[in-house]
Structure formats: structure tokens, C-alpha cells
# Entry
Amino acid sequence: MRPLMLAVFLVAASACGESQPAPESEVSVEERIARIEASLPPNFTIRGETPALVSLEDRMRVLNVPGVSVAVVNDSRIEWARAWGVADAASGRPVGPNTMFQAASISKPVAALAALRLVQDGRIDLDGDVNQWLSSWKVPENEFTRDTKVSLRGLLTHTAGLSVSGFPGYAAGETVPSAVAVLDGHGNTDAVRVFQNPGTSARYSGGGYTVMQVLVSDAEGRPFHEVMRTEVLEPIGMSRSTFEQPIPEAMQADIAFAHDGDGTPIEGDWHTYPEQAAAGLWTTPSDLARYAMEVQRAVRGESERILSQAMAREMLTPNDDNQGLGPGIDTTGPMFRHGGSNAGFRANFAAYIDEGQGAFVMTNAENGGPLVAQILSAIAMEYGWPAPLPAERVPVVLDVAALERWTGDYAAEGRPLVVEMRILNDTLRAHVPGDSVTFIPMSESTFFDRRTGSVLEFTAHDDGSARLLFMGVSAIRAANR
# Structure
């Protein structure tokens, strides 16, 4: 039996073809919105086949997504904002453009502005040991920090070597710990600790952003949500946004409730996140658009309300992992972007660095991710943007000998699951208990699932035996959470 090694990736998408939008002078905003509503592309396309387009209404129903809110920036202004569905499936309360959603991990690139402002003002250093400025808590020293310390740059780019990727939040009635308590493992996640040498490789860490949250609060001498309100949100004009957790009662009149995969409100309607910088922002797509436009203006040297031109450019300069100081950087465009996934919420945005354009989508459902990707792609196609577009799969024909190389039984070490890989009509057929999947070749070593677009890549171990890597499909360029 051949050993099976599993790894999960987001595949960098390829354009599904050049879209042909009408000249802007001939298209009204309402016409654009109507076409987007009626023509969501699939999350992947197959070259040579006409993709089946679906309506927004149909996809919301199939995916059990109660509510969607969208804003589009064009020509350096919010060209339109529109919402569909309900904020609360139980009551039928409608969602509107001003309804606040949990931004989840999109909190990170917004929160990064406060930390970079402190760097810009000379109050902390981007590359120094963060323990110099932390007072209410310190990064515990261990063998991994002996030679290289944790820096703010490492926290912002997920290269600080810190643990705890994300947070589940706290349901209604549960005790909500402080950020410091979370860092020491007194919440519902492990303690945040350095587990590898800082700066050696990327490891997504919401724990690192929680360290950044405490750093900003300590440097300012006041709660993080207050710093964000006075130093970032209010200057930008993000009036329908807050990092305060739990969200104040006065702001709860028009917020979206979280829903599970069946479209049912979760118990308590939403979770609370004391990890404010990592996951705690409540906001709207229009306010996220205001954040992006401020960054775009700073890059052009047209605004210094938050960051100088030099600092904004450094923020959006990608490292080897295409990660900026907060947002991910997609070199197609190029764009800065980030996604978010909290209990019962999914969201994503993509904004061009050098152009005043961008799209911002928020949903109140566990199954909202695929819909968000489709809406972003539909907007890009409507406006003629090069990204984000659906991933493209390009089939090829392999002879039997090439296919036979990968046939056999695969199993993960220590796991009972066996995958039987067999040939079926110029394709590979994977059999697992209760299911079978046909994979179509894209090259001698890569295959895709026609149903989902998921990709298999075969390689070989040092001894020549086959190795199988399962890879995911993403309709969005750049692999960011």
C-alpha cells in the first residue's frame, strides 16, 4: 500500500477568459447590478466549455445564505451598495446596505493601520522585539526566541512563529476572557506561544494579531477598540463600524445574525470575539470600501489621515508569501485583499492598489464562502477587471501508461481510510467508502474533479513510490483567509 500524504492549498486561479463589458458611458449602475444578479459564474470553469451562469437568488437558496451585502468602488468612489435577503432568518428582518456584519479576519488589515501608525510616529519599531513595548503581557521566551525575537513585522505578516491560527468566539452566556487571558490559554483556545523560529516561514496566526492588539493597547494606554475608533475608524469615516466586543447594545438595532449551514440562526445569534484585532470588527461593505479607498489615496500621496505614502506603500509591498503588512497582496492587478470566516459569517474583499476600484462582499452564513467568491468574480467580469475571476481547469488526454503510474491504493499514516485509484475511460477514478470521484487529467501529474474543481497532484517520494497531494479550488487569486 502506498503512503498517502495530505496537504491543503488554495490554488492560484487562472482567468476564465476576457470579459467584454460595454463602454461605461453606455451602462447604467442599475444595469450592471441586474447583470451581476442574473449571471454569477461558477467557482471554476473548464476550458472549451461554456460555463453555466446562475442567479444570485438561486445560489442564496441552494447554499442556505439568508443575507448578502455588497459594495463596489469604481473611479475612487462607492459607485453602488446593495443588499439582498434577510439579516435574521427567524424574524425575516431584511438586510440593508447599512446592516453591520462580522468582518472576521478582515479585521486584521483594518487593525494593522493602528499599529503602522505607531511605527510611523516613531513610538514602536517594525522590526524590534515587541517585548520592548508590551507591558501588560510579554511573549514568553523559549528556545525559538533565543536568537531571533518576535517583531511587529512578523505579527502582521504571520511570520512571527506564533501558534493559534483562529478563534471560535464565545456564544451567548459564555464567559468572555480578556485578550491577555486568551494569550495565556485561559479561553477556549491554546496559549499563544512561539513554536518555530521567527522569520523562518509563514504560519497564519490570529494569535499573532492578538499580540498586536495588546501591543497597540499598551502603547496607547487605553483599550484597543477605543484606539481603533479614534485613530482609524472615525478619521476614515467608518461610522457603521466598531471593534468593541461584545458589540454595544446601542449598535444592535441593525446587525446581521449568524447562521449555520442550514441557514438557521446560531444559538445566541452571534459569537463574541475578545480577539478584536484578529476577528472582532463589526462593519458594512461600504465601510470596508472606505478603508480601502483611504489606503488607495495614501498610496497615491493624496491623503495622510492615517498613513503616509511611504508607509502605505510598505504596507502593500508583498513578501515572498505575497503577504503585506496586514492584507494579502495579489500580484494580478495588483490588488490587496483579505477574507474572513467567523461562526456564521463569511466575507471577502479585493481592491486594486493603483486604481480606485474594488469589491466588498459580506454574508451571514456558514456556507457564504462560495457565494462571496462568485459575486466577486461576477463583479470583476462586469467591470472588465483582470481579477478576481474563476479558476480555470484545462483538460488534457493521457495514454494508459501515464494513467497507470498513479493507480493503486493509498492510505494516510495512522488512518483507516483507503483511497483506491483506478483507470476509467481516460480518467482516474478515486473510490473511498461511500463515494467515488472521477478526476480528469490536466497534466501527467495533476487531475481535477469535474464536480468541484478540486485538484489532485501526484508526485513521488525519494524511493520512487507515489505520493498524492489533495489540493483545493479557489475562485479568488491569492491564498488569504
Remarks:
- The longest helix spans residues 368-383.
- Residues 1-20, 471-481 have pLDDT under 50 and may be disordered.
- The first strand starts at residue 2 and ends at 4.
